[in-house]
Specification:
193 residues, two-stranded antiparallel sheet, alpha+beta
Length: 193
Amino acid sequence: MHSYPDIPSLARESDVVVYAETAGISYYIAGDGVCRTKADIKILQSFKGNYKKGTKIKMIKDQGYASVKDYIDSLGTKDERRSCRQKYEQYSNEALKHIYVLQIEQDDIMLETGQKSIYFLQKSAYYNTDGTYARINGPEGEYMETEEGYFAEVKTFCDYRKSIETRGDTGSEEEEYQVFTLDEMASQINESK
């Protein structure tokens, strides 16, 4: 994976670029203890690709929740399962069905129903079993709507939030992360054509 220097380069590498709202979320655990979030996102505006407003597409993120029981059961070897189970030895097998683990990629945010973002998406042979898309470079391929009509790259927005938690002050938001209007995003995406 490499980083993209700007929005036009992200758009050039994308199969689809859309402004969309999360309409539904489900979690599952893949092999070897990896949590995933599968979302139905409803297109609000399409910048690249042939999707009409109101169309729903599927997107996957490397994040999610799973019960500790399901997490342990998904591990590849008996030794891995035994080792992990020992960490939770004070809990019964029944209790482990009601205790959850959260996995989230560094510099990412958990997806929520109703969240609006501009996504730079690619079809992936790894995930594409039913027309599902994945973000380019994870959080780098998503610009979240931070307030109505204003967008910030998830990766830099998360860096900003971490610095607030560390420093204890907000400083100047303008200096910490760049915010774009929908029109500014559209203009930069169109530069890629």
